[in-house]
Structures are given as structure tokens and as C-alpha cells.
Amino acid sequence: MARCGGERTGVHRETARGAADTDARSGRQQYGFSHFALKPKWGRISGYTGKSAMNDEAAEGTLDFRDPYTLNMQVQPQDIDGLYHTNNGVYVDWCQKVAWAHSVSLGLDLERYRTLDRAMVIIRSEFDYLQPSREGEEVLLATWITEWDERITMRRAFQVIRPADGVTLLRARMNFACIEISSGKPRRMPSEFIEGYGPAVLGKTVAPDDAKDVPGAAG
Fold it and tell me: Topology of domain 12-211, per CATH?
């Protein structure tokens, strides 16, 4: 399948661990983690529309899980690559943006992270590119915290939908680990994380032991 700085046609899966979780556009890398949450490069989110053409009933029938956190975006000219559709890296950015916006909505923003000297950082990500999107199209970004171990790790799911026809453009998964910001070492989630993220977790089952992917994991 041909590729020219953008999506392949059909299903394409990208898996990354540690420092390879994001491309160069997504943020600074330290300690083998993706630290997008520690120094977000966006203020006002480019392309954010604030509303969706998809009604609640349609969204409920299209989304993979209940109770999503969502953002509505419009594909911008700068999002388009040489194949005239949205570049792969833009989807990575979108997923990070909606994840961070969800965290902020739960009361865990950058200031709170710094005060607690704790942060949730990406240790693994996986993207399935299903259909292309093009300039001017509206897309709905949805995320969920699907599971966690209530100690160090948690997992998010993502879905990007085109409301005009209800087609799913992308599905993604990200595994996160809690670290101490000052040292970069894994640490147990503080009570503030348990209280903040807990109500948003879909399943209370223990996530697979992703701590094995974290260098120098400690309790």
C-alpha cells in the first residue's frame, strides 16, 4: 500500500512504547516517556468547533462505550498531507488533546500535577487508521478511561468519528503510568488521582501489568 507522509489506505496499526509513543510534533520526550501532559503546546485548540452535527441518539449508537468525553474538531488546511487527507500525526495530536481536556475536566490540570509532583504519562500507544478525513470535515473525538489498577497504570480508549455519516475514522488505545515529575520515576497514584480519575473509569477490573514497561518501576 502506498504511503506519502500520511495514512495508508485500509487498516493500519501503529504501536509504540516509551519514548517512541509520539512523533516529533507531539511534544518533548524525557525519561523514556511521552510528556505531553507536562508541557502541553496548545492553548486554544486549533480547529475546535464546540458543537457537533451528530445528535445524541446517533452518537450513542455509533460510539464504542457509554459516557464518552468528547471534543468536536474541524480538519484544518495545515492538517492535510501530500495525499490530500489528514496526516497520521494529526490523529495522534487529537487523541492527546482530548485526553488532556478530559483530565482537566476532572480537576487534574497542569497546575495540579505540578503541585502534587505527579503526572500520568503515556508508556504505550496503538492506532488503527480506518478511514481518511479531509479538509473542512467535522470530526468528533471521544475518549474513555476504560480500566486501571488504582496503583500506577491506567488505559484509555479513543474513537474518532465523522458525524456527517457516522463513520469511525480511527480507534486508538493508550496506556499511562503515574510518575513523580521531579525524578521521572514511577510512583503510586496519589489519593487526588484516585478521587479525580476514579469516577470516570468504566471498568473497575485490574488492568494488565503495564508497569513492566516502565523503567525502574517502583511503588
Answer: Thiol Ester Dehydrase; Chain A (3.10.129)
